[in-house]
């Protein structure tokens, strides 16, 4: 059963005297300041489109209340109004930590939102009683809940069957290689959402404050081999600094994640690199990941600076979006390539000869007879 994914629904219109205002809202006790904020922002966005009504759904952030909205716009014809139309919107509110669900399944809501808006426009243009519009929005809420329920059940069912096949089928889904990956970076850069996007599990909460580590698994095909990743989502908070270091042990690969809209998180990548290098022996197999490249207008980290850091640390970098999924799979396939190639590269001839030479020297030292001192007689 879907629990608390829907935080509210607001039907807003532009009033010529009062400006943007909420006409209908769910739940009934939704704070007035929330109603006003959502109405003002959604209708003002529409006003900025110069009378063009967007056909597709929009995801609009409301950071001051830690919510986001799935917004569908509409235009209601009214001959007595200035401009002969009323700008309107219906907004489905959800926690910003659950945005991955709505980004991933946005197409599943397109038809429902379009049908609901069509019915509301029809009712408003024939001046139907407000209760009829309210009933339509109540029905919309129930249908959204039903879709979320179905999607969650389907996702869980797929995961359970995959997990079952992994252990029950004779020889089925067995991994040829299993690699431990540690995913590191400052809090809220998108480590967890990146992992969730890759593992295709949108219904887990995205920004769970990890109490040390979260484990996830995903198997991919690489060079006709089954490669299983065990992903360790390492807590970014400084209070876990001592606790997280044992989790580095045995890592085959690392992802160093920063937020392209947060300069400090980028600057801290060097500190994460040093922390891992201090606690891991050998060469660091990993990538630098810049998340949230979908937020183009909010970008704070220049590509040139990322290239410089990439060269300095000798790690390739990718820009990704955990929300849209851009480059997510490419990152993990690249990491599989790096780890596999380095683990399976043959030692150079020089190294082999050096080891053999050392053994021979030891053998000579043990078996060679001592030289007798020469004596001379006068």
Word description of this protein:
This protein is of the alpha/beta class. 43% of the residues lie in helices and 23% in strands. The protein has two domains: 8-161; 175-344, P-loop containing nucleotide triphosphate hydrolases (Rossmann fold). It contains eleven helices and eleven strands. The strands form two sheets. It has a six-stranded mixed beta sheet, sandwiched between helices. Strands 2-1-5-4-3 form a five-stranded antiparallel beta sheet. A hairpin with a 7-residue loop joins strand 4 and strand 5. The N and C termini lie far apart (108 Å).
Outline type: elongated
Helix and strand content put the structural class at: alpha/beta
Mean pLDDT: 81
- The CATH architecture assignment of the largest domain turns out to be 3-Layer(aba) Sandwich
Round the Cα radius of gyration to an integer and report it: 29 Å
Q: Give the low-pLDDT segments.
A: 162-172, 204-211, 349-369, 371-378
What's this entry about, in short?
This protein has 378 residues and is an alpha/beta fold. The chain has helices spanning 32-47, 99-104, 106-125, 130-168, 191-199, 241-248, 263-267, 269-279, 303-313, 328-344, 349-367, and strands at residues 8-15, 19-26, 58-62, 67-77, 85-95, 177-184, 213-222, 225-234, 253-259, 286-291, 316-319. It contains eleven helices and eleven strands.
